[in-house]
Amino acid sequence: MARNEGGRLVYADLLRAAAVFAVVVIHLADSRMADVAAGSGAWTAFNVYNGISRWCVPVFVMLSGMFMLDPKRGLTLPRLVFHHILRILIALFFWGTVYHLAQLLMAGGKLSPQAVWDAFYSVVLGDTHYHLWFLYAIIGLYILTPVLRAFVRGAGRREFHWFFLVWALVCLVLPLTQQIHESATVNRWLWAMYYSTNTVKFLGYYIAGYYLKTYTLNRASEFLVYILGVLGAVVTVGGTALLQSRGTEELILYEYCTPNVALMAAAVFVLFRYTLGVSEERSRRQRFLTTARISFGIYLIHDLFLMLLDYFGITTLSFFPALSVPVLAVLVFACAWAAAWVLSKLPLLGRVIT
């Protein structure tokens, strides 16, 4: 298993870089999808880019789980609270405030101490920028981490497989079935037992990251995962197009906790572990190390550049969408990378907000 300096896993660094770029692609493809006719060329391009990138958020959760749940890594309760959870909370309040102020300025408002306080207080009340929802989910998972670490310490493969079976049924299959064919009774039971927060839905990904890092797949299992991953991508893109052609407006197959997206996430994770992360080439390791280290910052800051593009009237409809999505994604990613890198150099605050 390839490692770079400091004991970091090469494939984990590669996955972080790929996942944060895929987030940018999703947000660009999403931004104007509702403004074009379903089935049109532009809509199809948005659907393809959006659909094949949905694995990114589950993979982020898996990357957290593969390290946070590892019993070999020392993790005391004070370190969990003051190093991990507190860091996420500071980033949430900092960037939540920044985005409120950015929206105020772009709407023609003025910056003032009262505006800063109002922005901060909005975050206190839980009103944050749309993509910061992920931080709440991560905080929830971190709070459960001590209990989950006890589970993985004592679990064997059989217990892991039972957990994944139950999680897939409760958090992937039944919710999708509910959206296609609603049953009030089933919905009440599921909500009462499992769905009070998004944290429960992501538990499977969190534990899957540790499982796929710890246990080795044979070649047949690896190949099967790839086949299912491709099938998941086909279902996500093709199924969304089919539902739209039938007049279904909800993009239910895009949701992160669906069987099709879970299959894609598992396939991408396995692909990076067994195929793309095996190189020991020093230059390759170094190239992705910096991006991996600031990937959190790239995720947090990238939407500021999406807002700026929109402010200046540059959208994915400004030119051919099949080209505009990847071109603008590269541009936004590069700007976010540069900004996150600069911010990461700030004393004390830098490593917390990036």
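Above is the first protein from milestone M3; the second protein from the same milestone is given next.
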Amino acid sequence: GGLALVCGAASVAAARALRDDGELAEVRHWVHDRQVRRSSLGATLQMVANGLVQVGVPAWLIVSDVLGAGGAAAILMGMTLTMAAMGPITGRRGMVSYPSRLRRGLVGCAVGLAGLAVAAATGPWWLAAPALVVLGLGAGSLLSPSLTAFSRTTAGESTIALSLFNLARLGSFGLGGLLGGAFVDAGEPGTAFLAVAIVCGLAAAQVGTDRALAADGGDEPEERAQEQTRAPEGAGGGTDDG
């Protein structure tokens, strides 16, 4: 209830700020930038999945009396260590287009979350470990490149836009954690994992469609130029060297 009140008040304030003479009038122009939309999509979905797993996986394992707190934390490290290891490993491959990285990252998140859903619903609990590794590969593909791709847009040059971008990322992490905790309380953690997996899969399919349209000339010249923007594959900070 408190969250709903805060969101309602924020929506009213944002609506006023987005008017032509408002403080956030530029936001309406930024959302028409395909690269802004894609980098924001990658960042938010990656953080939703991250928050969901950080809360949902250990809570599911502990509440179900499968593992203690230490064992659940060790299982969770499968994702964290994979994301950390991707920086130096994938960075050696050079540069890839962000749409390609976005599609691959979303597919990795979808497959990893689907594996967690199977483990939580019907499969053996240890299936969660390899599923978390796959999820780490997908999330690591989006963590740094999303921020880098956003920073190279016109919106990325604005402090306000960067603040909104980070607010969306952190808010998505909290939303994912809330979703994981709520479904563990309901005794259906697998449902939450599966729901987010479906969202990531649908988003990945849409990115593929957008790329096909761009190849057919569906993008404006400026958007086609942005499609060539390169982003590092590393999973570290949002710098050019990953």
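Note on the second protein: The chain has a mean pLDDT of 78.
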